[in-house]
Amino acid sequence: MRPRSLALLGALLGASVLPIEAQAPEEIPAFGGEVSVGLVLVPVVVRSGDGYVRGLDAGDFRLLVDGQATRFESFERRDDAPISVVFLQDLSGSMEASGKLEASREAVRHFLDQATLADEFALATFAGPTTTVEVPFTGDLGALRESLATWRAYGKTALHDAVSLLPEISGSGSHAKRAALLITDGADNASTIPPAEAREIVRRAQVPVYVLGLGSGSPYELSREGAKANRYADLLNLLALYTAGRYFPVEGPDDLKEALVAIAEDLRHQYVLGFSTDGGGRPRHHRIQVEVPDRPVKVLARQGYHGNLPSARRAGS
Question: Structure pTM?
Fold first, then answer.
């Protein structure tokens, strides 16, 4: 077992904050990913050239699992549905420079300022070898704002270790619409888990990961030799793509504002498809594809889950 730790806030039990040893990747109870859950939720964002596509009904969607059409039992399309969001904040030493911490606070405050009465948020931070849940899921915005004021940058960056814990942290959220917002400069120098392994763990969770890369650059910029010029940006972008989130390079206030508006619109205009997984078979990874046939739109959705087969296929499939 690799040495990782998660300092879980004991407010849920009235206890003090105590670090605990995290489970090995295969033991992490990835929310919605394992067969024991029995229900897979698929958050979906649909865009066209005119923006976000609203007003679609269940019949407008086609769900495929491993390439086969599959029935989904639940469907949600309320633009005002409450959300469960985890803020995962980098507090390592490199975040001290260039106003990164204040930009991070501004990002979190933006979501708190736009929150509805039913929304809930959790706040986790990482620095050195430790990831700490500062505030578990709550609608108490005051507690979240107070936590922001205590942030201090220190230590090395175990970014991928922290990312691998997102399924555990997000698992206690109560709403169908979920997301994680990772705020970091991307410079990982202390993780014990490789980036690909961390992505695989998070891929099993039913939560899109949106990434604000503070000064981490574009993932598509190439060096003169044709290699990726911004390695950390490329890794952060892959994390977002794997989970149906989005990566935003942030170089200044305007970039930050545009990113926050775009993320908020994604969250408010999600559709959520749900299907059960008691169809037998050995638990394994299954590919998910969501389509909106006969419409010129772009569909973003989670790409897979780990568990049993879906309960039902569509007739004739």
Answer: 0.74
Residue 24 covered by a domain: no
User: In sequence order, what DSSP letters do the residues of 209-259 get, joined into one string?
Assistant: EEEEEET---TT-B-TTSSBS-HHHHHHHHHHHHTT--EEEE-SHHHHHHH
Residue 294 to residue 271: CA distance in whole angstroms: 18
Torsion of CA 237, 179, 170, 94, to 10 degrees: 50
Q: Quickly count: other Cβ atoms within 10 Å of residue 257's Cβ.
A: 14
CB atoms within 10 A of CB 139: 14
> With contact defined as beta carbons under 8 Å apart, do 23 and 250 qualify?
no
Are residues 234 and 85 part of one domain? yes
Whether 80 contacts 175, CB under 8 Å: no
Average pLDDT over residues 156-165: 94
* Segment 70-94, tens digit of pLDDT: 999 999 887 777 899 999 999 999 9
Owner of token pair 């891929």: 203
Give the count of beta carbons closer than 10 Å to the beta carbon of residue 248. Answer: 21
Contact 299, 288 (CB under 8 A): no
Q: How many angstroms separate the CA atoms of 302 and 276, rounded?
A: 16
Contact assessment for residue 306 and residue 315, using Cβ atoms and an 8 Å cutoff? no
Other Cβ atoms within 10 Å of 175 Cβ, number: 16
Q: Are both 194 and 214 inside the same structural domain? A: yes
Residue 14 Rama label (left phi>0; alpha psi -120 to 50; beta): left
SS3 content of the chain, % helix, strand, coil (to 5): 25, 30, 40
What domain range is 295 assigned to?
Answer: 39-79+271-307
Q: Which residues contact 149 (CB under 8 A, 6 or more apart)?
A: none
Same-domain pairing of 246 and 153? yes
